[in-house]
Amino acid sequence: MVHQYKNNGYNIVMDICSGAIHVVDDVVYDVISLFEENSLDAIRQQLAYDEKEIDEAYQEVLELKEQGLLFTDDIYEDYIKEVKERKTVVKALCLHIAHDCNLACRYCFAEEGEYKGDRALMSAEVGRAALDFLVENSGNRHNLEVDFFGGEPTMNFGVVKEVVEYGRTLEKKYDKHFRFTFTTNGILLNDEMMEFANQEMDNVVLSVDGRKEVNDYMRPTRNGKSSYDIIMPKFIRFAESRGQQKYYVRGTFTRKNLDFSNDVIHLADLGFEQISMEPVVGLPEEPYAIREEDLPQIFEEYDRLAREIIKRKKEGRGFNFFHFMIDLTGGPCVAKRLSGCGSGTEYLAVTPWGDLYPCHQFVGEEKFLMGNVFDGIKRPDIADEFRQCNVYTKKKCRECFARFYCSGGCAANSYKFHGVIDDAYDLSCEMERKRVECAIMIQAALAQEGE
Amino acid sequence: MKRVKTLTGNKTYAECTSSTVGNQTCENNK
User: Fold this and answer.
1) Pairing state between β A177-184 and A143-149
2) What is each CA distance from B10 to A21, A64, A263, A365, B14, in whole angstroms?
3) Residue range A20-25: average pLDDT?
4) Which of A325, A341, A413 sits opposite B17 (nearest CB)?
């Protein structure tokens, strides 16, 4: 399978099943589009270029094909089946340290942090039991990830510290290393928390939607006041204190700010160098939900953002945009690319009272309750269902050019829109394909700059 | 080749949890 597109003056050809990516001239671009269905004579007749140019381009295309860099076959369907049948271990937990929040974000999937239930804080006892469960179920795996999530984790920060301290005592005993991360809306964030995070947290996610008016419309406090003025000075200081590394400012864009590139640029202008901005996932009846008719504008925004990133990198003031980060000469192995995020098998979420779910977005959906941290997994059939998910079991993914980059999308989004975990949320797919195209174009532009 | 620049060099597909798994790098590659 080959995918061709033009962006920002670059002709880009992706050979999907080998991972090879080529930047080509106009003649090669047009020859490739005709190559599989036509003889050289037929191509000569259909293209208006000089015959010598066409022959030269044709030879280069032939050479790429012979090198296994173009028109390669998909040889991974059976391989990934075998990979997915292997025994998995639990690698990561998302600890819902607080089912409570001090913001009232309009788009919150956790419904003000309460996940369709009552407000609750995780006890240190449950937190410690969760780490014990992780150690017991992680096999020989050395590195383990624990994300403190909510609700708002800073509303229960004492327990965060106790759990981290307990984790450090387990490391030597069991030859494990915990990588702790946490997400915060910043309202209660203080110097002591920042200092603790800088010592103990491998990554922190700072939630803010960009420009003040955009952020404050979607992320008001519980009494309807601005959150931007409270959090932004602290976030700027926090990012600086981490040396502009190992953090993200992470926002959500909605139908209310389809000009979201301005929000990303606003964050960059404030000095943030690690930025993520994701499309909201909302049901169609929600006024902020993204609709199909919004896609052309969203695509233009991604193009604009890509051009701005190239410009700033050339000027020596670049920043990382999470969805445009792509590693063309390394990156994960094909087994990882095709098997997805590990939800339900390698990655589980823990509620404040210790229940286990396939991931944070399934919490509160009782049919996905898998067990608890004290008694272990009681519903291995749920894990088996998630284990079966990969890009080849999803009809939409099998023919998608982005499948080696996206890994089949989010099971929770699939469930939200289609009632099953092995489908895909179509609007998200469209945006992911666009982001992959932009990310590769940026690499093409930077490679040209380096020549 | 004068008409083609391959961004991926000769790299093709032929211990790592992650809307993009491509952002994560396997520990074997670190």
Assistant:
1) parallel
2) 10, 11, 38, 46, 10
3) 96
4) A341
